[in-house]
Design a protein that fits this description.
Layout (H helix, E strand, L loop, with lengths): L1 E6 L4 H13 L3 E5 L7 H13 L5 E6 L3 H7 L7 E3 L3 H9 L5 E5 L5 H13 L6 H16 L7
Parallel strand pairs: 1-2, 1-3, 3-5, 4-5
Helix pairs in contact: 1-5, 2-3, 4-5
Length: about 150
């Protein structure tokens, strides 16, 4: 699986730690590096659009808190981003909500704890079941407000 990762200048150390973990686990990493003049919304939308277009199955976005990345990524139709700083939330983001994007904040979580959260998110899969209808409702909201979509 090829996983995209992006960060702003407030989370470069966290991004580096997560890239290391992804590579240790054998994932191919697409690093959306820092570009001059880019703020977290710029990085988040670029990565989220790549996910929506199917260029990556999953992505990780890091900033100071993870909040701005999550808010921005969720504005891209077809993308479900979840800010997670604990294992349970990371598992539920995948199992119940089929979140393709994980966001974390360098000012909120240390690199070793972030790796544990990342592992939980990577190892979890969408369970379907009663959650499938809820995810479909989220997708219907995307289509209602963005009928043109973004690569979806």
């Amino acid at each position: 699986m090829k996983i995209a990762i992006g960060a702003d200048d407030a989370a470069l150390e966290l991004k580096a730690a997560l890239i290391e973990r992804l590579e240790e686990k054998g994932y191919e990493v697409a690093d959306y590096g820092i570009k001059e003049g880019y703020d977290y919304p710029d990085v988040a939308v670029e990565v989220a659009e790549a996910v929506a277009k199917g260029e990556h199955e999953r992505a990780i976005l890091c900033c100071g808190t993870g909040l701005g990345m999550s808010i921005t990524a969720n504005k891209v139709p077809g993308v479900r981003a979840a800010q997670c700083h604990d294992v349970y939330s990371a598992e539920r983001a995948r199992k119940s909500n089929n979140a393709q994007v994980l966001t974390m904040g360098q000012r909120v979580i240390g690199p070793e704890a972030a790796k544990v959260v990342l592992d939980a998110w990577l190892e979890s899969e969408f369970a379907g079941g009663s959650s499938a209808a809820k995810v479909e409702k989220m997708e219907a909201i995307d289509r209602k407000y963005h009928p043109e979509g973004v690569g979806i």
